[in-house]
Amino acid sequence: MAVPLFDPASPLRPLRAEIDAAVTRVLDSERFVLGREVGAFEEEFAAHLGVQHAVGVANGTEAITIALRALGVGPGDEVVVPSFSFWASAEAIPPVGARPVFADVDPATYCVTVESVRAAITPRTKAIIAVHLFGNVAPVRELEEEFGLPVVEDAAQSAGSSGPDGSPGALGAIATFSFYPSKNLGAFGDGGAITTGDAALAERVRSLRFHGSRDKVSYQDVGYNSRLDELQAAILRVQLPHLDAWAAHRRAAGEWYAEELAGHDAVVLPQATPGARPAWHLYVIRHAAPDALAQHLQAHGIECRGYYRRPIDAQPAIAAAGWGRTTDLPGTDVAAAEHLAIPMSAAITRAQVAEVAAAVRAFAG
Ligand SMILES: *Cc1c(COP(=O)(O)O)cnc(C)c1O
């Protein structure tokens, strides 16, 4: 039986009538940009995360750029970011005029640590981007306490996760989400959000997402046209009440994998950070020969993928700018070389997990 790598469609099937009704509501309202649906979604999303403010934006990449701008990061500044992440985590930094400086990750958790960030900090560091990679929860509070610098949480992959200090999105100075269709909370197109507990930052973000203006009369900043649209907000509002159940399913599926693969030392399972309850966005294992393992799984109809085989600091655009690594990144290199995402979704069944795990065991011995 074929097992897909992810499956965003199945959990939405039972919600189809509600989604149709939400779309019709927006069409009937004849209001498509910054209307009631976006406002309502912002309130509901903030309440769900346990944070004061949420602001809808166009996507998760611009969300990071706007969050950095709102924090006052600009030319001459450095922003620490993990090299093992999706490209956009770092790509979002140069548009504000700042330089990305790459921190290592712990290859057990795929997240930065206090020590890995320390090695990347200089007197020019103005902010830290902590990525809650694959649904794990990065140590945001520890980073802010240790370094006294604002942390931007890149929570694009961690909607539905929680940690000892609360949910991603409510842990640092400011946080960013993506609602790209395959994420834990996915729109029917691009979308994103910025969350913060700081009212002044939220105001800056609201202005920046709309051309740097609050009233369409006075333009305070050279801003962005970066808005979540009404249709996406209405569709997200239908899904939000189900996010926790979907997250619980992802977490349970991670526990099934851990049971099935326990004792197979050639396979390194992802480790939740202390106290974290990850809603695994991707379930990413490590193996010394991930490409051979991938071929074996694919021959059995099981989809799998190495997402970040080349770390961000080694990408051509970063090398061309002269922004390569400034410290050793051994955890990044191990994670990049060995990781492999195996099937995970809010709809994956126990039988599918058993089938995938059996194929992994057959290869790994
Ligand atoms: C998806 C993603 C982004 C970018 O989000 P978009 O909505 O696609 O722009 C940023 N960071 C991480 C970690 C992501 O997974």
From TrEMBL:
<keyword id="KW-0808">Transferase</keyword>
<protein>
    <submittedName>
        <fullName>DegT/DnrJ/EryC1/StrS family aminotransferase</fullName>
    </submittedName>
</protein>
<keyword id="KW-0663">Pyridoxal phosphate</keyword>
<dbReference type="InterPro" id="IPR015424">
    <property type="entry name" value="PyrdxlP-dep_Trfase"/>
</dbReference>
<comment type="similarity">
    <text>Belongs to the DegT/DnrJ/EryC1 family.</text>
</comment>
<dbReference type="Pfam" id="PF01041">
    <property type="entry name" value="DegT_DnrJ_EryC1"/>
</dbReference>
<dbReference type="GO" id="GO:0008483">
    <property type="term" value="F:transaminase activity"/>
</dbReference>
<keyword id="KW-0032">Aminotransferase</keyword>
<dbReference type="InterPro" id="IPR015421">
    <property type="entry name" value="PyrdxlP-dep_Trfase_major"/>
</dbReference>
<dbReference type="InterPro" id="IPR015422">
    <property type="entry name" value="PyrdxlP-dep_Trfase_small"/>
</dbReference>
<dbReference type="InterPro" id="IPR000653">
    <property type="entry name" value="DegT/StrS_aminotransferase"/>
</dbReference>
